[in-house]
Amino acid sequence: QVQLVESGGGLVQPGGSLRLSCAASGFTFRIYTMSWYRQAPGKERELVATDSSGGSTYYADSVKGRFTISRDNAKKQLYLQMNSLKPEDTAVYYCTALLLGYWGQGTQVTVSS
Questions:
Q1: What tens digit of pLDDT does each residue of 16-33 get?
Q2: Distance separating the N- and C-terminal Cα atoms of the chain
Q3: CA distances (Å), origin 13, targets 17, 37, 89
Q4: What are 62-80's pLDDT values in tens digits?
Q5: What angle do CA 66, 98, 64 make, to 5 degrees?
Q6: Separation between Cα atoms, residue 77 and residue 30, nearest integer Å
Q7: How far, in Å, CA of 100 to CA of 89, rounded?
Q8: Parallel/antiparallel/unpaired status of strands 18-25 and 10-12
Q9: Whose CB among 9, 11, 41, 78 lies 3.0–4.6 Å from 22's, allowing a Cys bridge?
């Protein structure tokens, strides 16, 4: 049974940092491209970052230079280090193994003073 469980969200002030984690189980994590998406209220879900099984990464222009995606294949964990957070980063963040069609339940990130 495939499971993706996000954690690490919360309330942070502008300019602050958060590290999101996604615990994966039920599939061969190391061979799959993994991604973080986010969805803000009233907006469509958007791609934030992708980490391929081969080590290449992709970032949305809006987060480039501020966010870093990484993975630990031994622990079956996906991470998103978010620095210099802005109010417009407020959203529910989801991890996904898109090719498998599975999503986590999401974790709320709120950036506000």
A1: 999 999 999 999 999 999
A2: 40
A3: 8, 21, 11
A4: 999 999 999 999 999 999 9
A5: 15
A6: 10
A7: 26
A8: unpaired
A9: 78
Which tokens go with 67? 């966010």
Q: Is the distance from CB of 109 to CB of 18 less than 8 angstroms?
A: yes
Backbone angles phi, psi at 3, to 5 degrees: -135, 140
Of 76, 25, 82, 9, nearest to 49 (Cα)? Answer: 82
Give the pLDDT mean for 7-15. 98
